[in-house]
Amino acid sequence: MRGRVLIPLPNTGAMGRKRNNFYMRSIFILALCIFGLLQYHNFNYLDSRDAMLSESVTNDSVDAIMSMVPATLHKYLTPHTRNHTISAAGLQLNSSGSSSGGSGNGAATTISFEVYRPPNNTEIKRQIVRYNEMQLVLNEETFGPLQNDSVIIVVQVHTRINYLRHLIVSLAQARDISKSLLIFSHDFYDDDINDLVQQIDFCKVLQIFYPYSIQTHPHEFPGVDPNDCPRNIKKEQALISNCNNALYPDLYGHYREAKFTQTKHHWWWKANRVFNELEVTRFHTGLVLFLEEDHYVAEDFLYLLAMMQQRTKDLCPQCNILSLGTYLKTFNYYTYHSKVESMPWISSKHNMGFAFNRTTWTSIRRCARHFCSYDDYNWDWSLQHVSQQCMQRKLHAMIVKGPRVFHIGECGVHHKNKNCESNQVISKVQHVLRIARNSHQLFPRSLIMTVPSLIKKSKLRKGNGGWGDLRDHDLCLNMTLPTR
């Protein structure tokens, strides 16, 4: 070993190959980083470009809101109130256009305006009966009769006309809206709201009016009867005073408040009316989509709803309700625009922009006693109770991960903000949808079912109260009786 000479081995190229592999991996990683930076820059550019377009005005200003709406739809956002606050009766104008006190010498002309007088209670009741009996479908001559598989959109309306205007604008921009029947269900009769609804010209329209409202029954049940027990009176005191329903406070010892019970009554009446009483829906077996006056829809909401319905059989055979809305505060369309998930229907998460057909409704309606006697003034919690306690086939939902229905209301039954007329949320939703549109995240070509994150099993719970009065139970049950 001491005298041996070491002879170098021939170069086989192994070291060269290792170096080449290292360089290739480095180049690949660098290319990925560059691609990621380009994508990030692209989406930031879209964001910044949209911001620049509206930087001259405040995001939630009226001018900014109007700039995001096609000019042909501005008519729905422009108030034309009948309730004139300034009377112009007797205004004298001369032929040159100046007032009678001016220097013009032309012949004076008298212009008089009829002063608007809102209808009284008797007239309102008469009009409600007339509308509900006529069942007049507007624009049917233009768009033809309702097809069996067309989507019926039902909007529950109270008094918030500003939000309703924006909902109508969003509906007008939706693809295939002309094939739908749009039903507005009112619990408050208002000429300005009626004028707005009857101005719609992009689809068939029908108005129905909840006949047991507080407006039409201000001093009697289901409104506020003078002899009703005060909310916070103790049961012992209620029995002594012999006020109405003294024997039946709610789970928490409180007595009914008409302003809270009305919403549940209205929802139940509306669903019964649409599925079981209207002539135009008598043979309809397609989807019925439920919206409210302070919702806002994406332009592909009907497209996506149809795709969800078509894919139910293979993606989610157990799903019997489709949900287009969520209460997320941020929206990631790049990740979730074509993704859906399925889970048991949860009232607090899936009560916005959901749809089901007559088969599902029939199962719900069979559980009317559960819905009408459950001590909770919320219709959605009552519906979840029905699903858990009564329905043989529970409500199981397919939910879009990237919402197509948004909640724009700042104020409502449960929430009272300082500024109820704020346009901040409306502006945010418009901005989100504009970015989604510009980055081609709407109208996906296919749906992808994702595995939902681990969800705790929804426990049976007692209601929120507000529904202990037996008169409410009876009224609710009577709405289920067939009238056709």
Taken from the alpha-carbon principal axes, the silhouette is globular
* Helix vs. strand class: alpha/beta
DSSP, total strands: 13
CATH class: Alpha Beta
SSE topology string: HHEEHHEHEHEHHEEHEHEHEHHHEEHEH
Main sheet overview? 9 strands, mixed
Q: Mean of residue pLDDT?
A: 84
How many whole angstroms does the radius of gyration measure? 30 Å
The strand order across the widest sheet is 5-4-3-6-10-8-11-9-13
Spatial gap, N to C terminus: 112 Å
In the CATH hierarchy, the architecture is: Alpha-Beta Complex
Strand content range: 5-15%
CATH topology category name: Spore Coat Polysaccharide Biosynthesis Protein SpsA, Chain A
Low-confidence sequence ranges: 41-58, 85-104
What is the number of independent domains?
Answer: 1
- Count of helical segments? 16
CATH superfamily: Spore Coat Polysaccharide Biosynthesis Protein SpsA, Chain A
Helix content: 25-40%
What would your notes on this structure say?
The structure is a single chain. The longest helix has 40 residues. The relative contact order is 0.12. The chain has a single domain, classed as Spore Coat Polysaccharide Biosynthesis Protein SpsA, Chain A, CATH 3.90.550. The protein is built from 16 helices and 13 strands. It has a nine-stranded mixed sheet, sandwiched between helices. It has a two-stranded antiparallel sheet with strand order 1-2. Strands 7-12 form a two-stranded antiparallel sheet. It is an alpha/beta fold and 484 residues long.
